[in-house]
């Protein structure tokens, strides 16, 4: 990181994982401009995701249907976030994304061995997109990294424009989070609701909305369920024995996916429940350990962020 002003800076980062994922990125940020109301950011980079999971579309897929795709992505993006008031924000951005598909790695079949372009949308197309985005929201959390009171309500729109072929599509996403302190924050009831939908054309299988990971359906593997529409609710009952460093929580998640929004059904809801321990500072989560149980067994979540 190199500072170009009091808070403005340029970051250069390189990341590598034991699953052979790689990323290189250069980013710049100029926060709190215009009297603290405006943040400007930009980034450019390349990532190699070697084991992008795909089980097929819908809520009835089997864990044994797991395949991996390998996606190379080059991207450039600029964005601005404006706060008209202390609790409200508007965010807009534009960028370009270039995807290249390769044979998936790992100990499961590659996605093209089990699926084709009808069952894994736009498989093998190597799409390029102009990516436009807009968000509007209300945020009165104590901190986005750890909070025991307040709420966060956001609506987001993403438009993916494919130059030349007209295969455009868009996604809508709504996030609702509310923390309700009880008995001077000895207990906290935390609630979250989220929906995401694809409208217009067909999204590539690896950009299709999904559920399953340590922040959504915690007892299920990453991107376990995919389809054009998703819905998710979560609840946590938190006990705060030490306000400076420790929370204990009981939680439950429930979510489903469907090809049509009106087809989202309680009959296809996937649920999990569990217990968690969180180590934190007054404004950030340092370590989160969750043990979740769902219909596919137990899963341990190790994270350095709050679930919502």
Notes on the protein architecture:
With 308 residues, the chain is an all-beta fold. It contains two helices and 17 strands. A 15-stranded antiparallel β-sheet has the order 1-2-3-4-5-6-7-8-9-10-13-14-15-16-17. It has a two-stranded antiparallel sheet with strand order 11-12. Strand 8 (150-161) and strand 9 (169-182) form a beta hairpin. The longest helix has 4 residues, at 33-36. It is globular, with a radius of gyration of 20 Å. It starts with a strand and ends in a 5-residue tail after the last strand.
Could you name the key traits of this structure?
15-stranded antiparallel beta sheet, 2 helices, mainly beta, single chain, two-stranded antiparallel sheet, 308 residues
Work out the helicity level.
under 10%
- Please work out how many helical segments DSSP would assign: 2
Mean pLDDT across residues: 96
Rg is 20 Å
End-to-end C-alpha gap: 28 Å
Q: Globular, elongated, flat, extended or rod-shaped: what is the shape? A: globular
């Amino acid at each position: 990181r190199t500072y170009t002003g009091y808070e403005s800076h340029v970051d250069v980062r390189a990341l590598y994982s034991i699953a052979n994922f790689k990323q290189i990125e250069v980013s710049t940020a100029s926060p709190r401009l215009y009297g603290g109301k405006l943040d400007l950011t930009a980034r450019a980079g390349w990532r190699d995701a070697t084991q992008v999971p795909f089980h097929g579309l819908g809520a009835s897929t089997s864990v044994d249907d797991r395949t991996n795709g390998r996606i190379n992505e080059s991207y450039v993006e600029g964005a601005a976030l404006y706060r008209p008031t202390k609790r409200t924000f508007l965010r807009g951005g534009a960028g370009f994304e270039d995807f290249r598909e390769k044979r998936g790695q790992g100990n499961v079949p590659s996605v093209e061995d089990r699926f084709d372009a009808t069952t894994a949308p736009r498989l093998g197309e190597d799409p390029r997109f102009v990516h436009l985005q807009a968000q509007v929201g209300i945020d009165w959390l104590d901190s986005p990294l750890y909070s025991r009171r307040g709420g966060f309500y956001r609506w987001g729109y993403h438009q993916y424009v494919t130059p030349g072929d007209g295969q455009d599509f868009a996604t809508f996403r709504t996030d609702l989070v509310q923390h309700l302190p009880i008995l001077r924050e000895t207990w906290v009831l935390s609630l979250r609701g989220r929906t995401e939908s694809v409208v217009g054309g067909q999204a590539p299988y690896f950009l299709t909305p999904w559920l399953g990971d340590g922040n959504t359906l915690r007892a299920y593997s990453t991107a376990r369920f995919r389809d054009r529409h998703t819905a998710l609710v979560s609840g946590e009952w938190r006990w705060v024995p030490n306000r400076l460093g420790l929370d204990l929580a009981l939680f439950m998640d429930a979510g489903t996916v469907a090809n049509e929004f009106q087809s989202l059904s309680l009959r296809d809801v996937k649920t999990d429940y569990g217990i968690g321990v969180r180590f934190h500072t007054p404004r950030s989560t340092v370590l989160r350990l969750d043990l979740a149980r769902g219909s596919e067994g137990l899963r341990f979540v190790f994270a350095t962020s709050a679930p919502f």
